[in-house]
């Protein structure tokens, strides 16, 4: 019988690890494997939920700049600009009308002196007419016909007195109308002091704020896009890093199966249905122990690195989420509960503006009525002036007739001649005073015509159209405000949830690196199962066991570790081809 070479028997029969020890090591891998599975499923679920909510929020806010720059907002801004412009135009018009009204007061008041002169002149004319009658009665004798002094002059004087009386009364009415208009305008100005200008400024500021928000949104969209792309990248990094959880779980399952096969080999000489000769048991233990400790060490190293990467990505993702939400709040407004929105403030401004514009047009309507009254009064006064001129013409004829009669009387008619001359002078003065008064009042008519025409026009129609424009602007902006409000409500509701989910996902990763240390400890114990190197030329039965293990792999990294120890699988065209096939397998998984 041939004797074994010296030392060979010692190597082959060296004490093998107990099967229970090997099975215990396999069992020791189950808790970290289950812990990894549970933790990474929870983390993946939180990441999925958080990323989905964050993606939805990001899409909402990425769409807002385009909405803010859209035709609806531009149309609304144009309508608001029209209301603001009308308010400013009315403010300027009121200033001009006040100057015109003040000028009207001056012109009407300036006519007071000529009217007073007119009244005094007519009064003197009445006195002279009475003197004419008395004088004529004293010097006439039977047969003299001097009705011109006793009747004609008195009649014309009375007619002039009545005409001037009516003239003065109409003038007083005109003065009262103008004073009332001035008082009403002063009351309106006290009530609405600087209202129009303030409204115009307020609307202008609101428009500027809306434009600034649009510009800020457009400028901020670039930053939003950058952070969004960064978030997408971090989510991708986190997802890739989290895949290590499933990969490590599978590798641990494979290592557990290999250790169970090793325990079967130690216990019964078979592994995975393959009988290993008794003389090859030591080689098999050395090969499997070396293989599984290498697999376990590499799994632990990859797991530790990827866990650190996943934790960093998740923390950065939570930070980015907080950043993009703060950025959105900064651009699109404060979301403090109970704080009125910019649109609510704008709506109040517009309604106040339309109400004030209506009041202003109503006030200008009063001015229009005053203008008509002034023009009508001036026409009446002009009629009285024409009557005065007619009386003056008749008085001249009467005076000429009186002069003829006085000449017939000789020296006895001298007093009547003086009276006739006085009447002609007074009549002339009456006409001059009346014309002087009318020259002033004609100016008042021109002024009234000017601001009356300005106050007329399509004022009510303009305000109605402005109100329609304001309402249309509010409708357009209300839709925008609703979308902004919904976006901000989503931000307030989902934003904190997103951050909580991402922070919880990051927290779920914390501590997982400790599992890598457990895996390293178990790897050291697996390495201690054999103190010899794996065989360089393994027995065919051992090769069959190793190929069975190779067939269980689902990760390229597992195949690479295996190939580094025992070469490529038998019949493989080349290591590169094997790697390519393995990569396809990974992809299909």
TrEMBL record:
Residues 567-577 have a biased composition (Low complexity). Residues 164-213 form a coiled coil. The keyword Coiled coil applies. Residues 566-589 are annotated as: Disordered. Keywords: Coiled coil. Residues 578-589 have a biased composition (Acidic residues). This is Uncharacterized protein.
